[in-house]
Write a structure and sequence with these properties.
243 residues; two-stranded parallel sheet; 11 helices; elongated
Length: 243
């Protein structure tokens, strides 16, 4: 590595660290389903030291790691927004650092990433174990999600709105039909699209972005117009949960 000689050198190393963190986030968390908190700890711990004994370089690197750790832990929502965008530029890096410097350094400060000011997300559901098994079976039968083996625990994490959980969607239209069927059978509340959007629980099939409320709404509208055997099968399976 080159020695840190200017503030620009420090900024460029921060950009390099966040760029690498983005690549690993998209692969480990979005594509492979790794828990976000585990990803953060693994990334920070694997980049804590540099192969340099110069005190200035070590101090600058330690400062950058501290910033990266603070951003990933305290500004998770903002970080995910930047990391799932099509590109991540040096300017984006500086905007994240500005956010860290002025909004996230004080504990308890109000903001979108402060849990104390964010009401918990909920679908308003209370599924029995058998109902959860039925949902998992429906999702498996109609290949709703891009996982090799769908577990009941995956559906429990989704419907309990577990923080930092996400799952890749195989077909947005079919997933929208499942949630709409749950609503029709009064098993969840009407604001399910907003919950999925805000929680960023659903990831696109290519793993590059989260499924938005507008995408779910559009997909559901199309599904209602163009009825298919798969959609009918999903609705029938969900209706059976009340029996």
């Amino acid at each position: 590595m080159n020695h840190f000689a200017t503030e620009q050198d420090v900024a460029e190393e921060l950009f390099a660290l966040l760029s690498e963190a983005r690549v690993i986030y998209l692969q480990d968390v979005i594509a492979d389903g790794k828990r976000y908190n585990r990803y953060v700890n693994d990334f920070v711990n694997s980049h804590r030291y540099i192969n340099c004994n110069d005190a200035v370089c070590r101090n600058c690197h330690e400062m950058n790691i501290h910033i990266v750790k603070g951003l990933l832990h305290d500004c998770a929502g903002l970080v995910k927004k930047f990391f799932t965008a099509d590109t991540f530029s040096f300017e984006d890096c500086m905007r994240l650092k500005w956010k860290y410097d002025f909004y996230e350094s004080s504990p308890g400060s109000p903001g979108a990433d402060n849990p104390a000011h964010t009401p918990p997300l909920s679908f308003g559901c209370n599924f029995s174990r058998e109902q959860m098994k039925g949902i998992a079976a429906c999702a498996t039968a109609f290949h709703l999600f891009c996982v090799s083996t769908l577990c009941i625990e995956d559906m429990e994490a989704l419907f309990s709105c577990r923080e930092d959980f996400s799952i890749r969607v195989n077909n947005v239209r079919h997933v929208a039909v499942m949630f709409d069927a749950l609503l029709e059978n009064r098993l969840i509340e009407p604001y399910w699209q907003s919950v999925l959007d805000k929680g960023r629980f659903l990831v696109s099939k290519d793993g590059k972005s989260y499924v938005s409320a507008s995408s779910l709404s559009t997909a559901l509208s199309i599904a209602r117009i163009k009825k298919t055997a798969v959609a009918n099968g999903i609705r029938k399976a969900i209706a059976g949960l009340k029996e």
